[in-house]
Amino acid sequence: MNTLGLSMIVKMGCICSKESIDINGSRYVVKERLGEGGFSCVDLVENASSKKRYALKRITCHSIDDQKVAMQEITYYKKLRHPNIIELVDSTFKGSADIVVQATSEAFLVLPYYKRGTLHDYLTLRSFNKNYLDIKEVLRIFSGVCEALKFLHDFTPDPVAHRDLKTANVCLTENLDPVLMDLGSCAPAKVQICGAQDAQKLQDIAAERSSMTYRAPELFHVESYCVIDQRTDIWSLGCVLYAMLYFKSPYDFVYERGDSVNLAVISGTVHFPEDGPFDEDVHNLVRFMLKVNPSERPFIDKVIAKTTDLKNKLDTVV
């Protein structure tokens, strides 16, 4: 057999070995792996018929409880419909989780594919040359994230908290409009903690599902008797705004230095670069959200009002 023939067989073998997945009668061909997390992975897939590309999230479930968590995520996607929240195109389960026989199941979530990637990706690219965003563009994107949160926090009959808001969980459209994604950490906004067992349970969930450098102080050390509400997201929102100004959460810088993120968050320490291009009004908007005591932290409507005031002030500056 000549080299060309062998080469063609190898190439055909690669094509034939492309994984395809059937979801409710539609076949999707896996093109590449986009990312992996502790509980799931995301692949770029193509619909075999329409050739349209999507992001396919796979969640491996090792138990019935894992299946319930995955089903809850799907439920949130279906009911939380807003222009700034990612839509669920389709979903299904394959297999059956049963710890007794060591079986696993897998949840498949078909989601829109955003070529620009996430806000985290965008900021990382710009950080290489310290290419700061224009403040008006910052506030425009930030306002879209606020609108997504407002929809969650005001949702009826039961308000919802995202609990893992960060730049990596905000996709960007071609027009740089923000789209909030990853609803796997979503939970009822208000949680009544009654005793040490409740507190430890929520603390463990937060440690597992809420990114440390964006996590609110009250989720690091949950008090035995307290009420946790949607203002956990407001802390994270403050970290997102800081990242839009200076490319990373203020506590990413702490983590990279090898210092304790826990202690820095609990102390409420926030440092702004002295050579940054942004004025005190913008920094004060960040500080407005990064209040260690959640009872002193604003709800989303006040954040939106303060952001609107700042945008109007900038519009009057010649």
TrEMBL record:
Q: Which InterPro entries match?
A: Kinase-like_dom_sf, Prot_kinase_dom, Ser/Thr-specific_kinases, Ser/Thr_kinase_AS
Q: Name the UniProt key words of this record, in alphabetical order.
A: ATP-binding, Kinase, Nucleotide-binding, Serine/threonine-protein kinase, Transferase
Q: Supply the enzyme class, top level.
A: transferase
**Annotated EC:** 2.7.11.1
A GO molecular-function annotation: protein serine/threonine kinase activity
One Gene Ontology term, aspect cellular component: Golgi apparatus
Ranges for domain Protein kinase come to 28-310
Supply the Pfam families for this chain: Pkinase
Q: Which domain of life is it from?
A: Eukaryota
Q: Which reaction does it catalyse?
A: L-threonyl-[protein] + ATP = O-phospho-L-threonyl-[protein] + ADP + H(+); L-seryl-[protein] + ATP = O-phospho-L-seryl-[protein] + ADP + H(+)
PROSITE patterns hit by this protein: PROTEIN_KINASE_DOM, PROTEIN_KINASE_ST
**Naturally occurring in which organism (per UniProt):** Exocentrus adspersus
Task: State the name under which the record lists this protein.
Answer: non-specific serine/threonine protein kinase
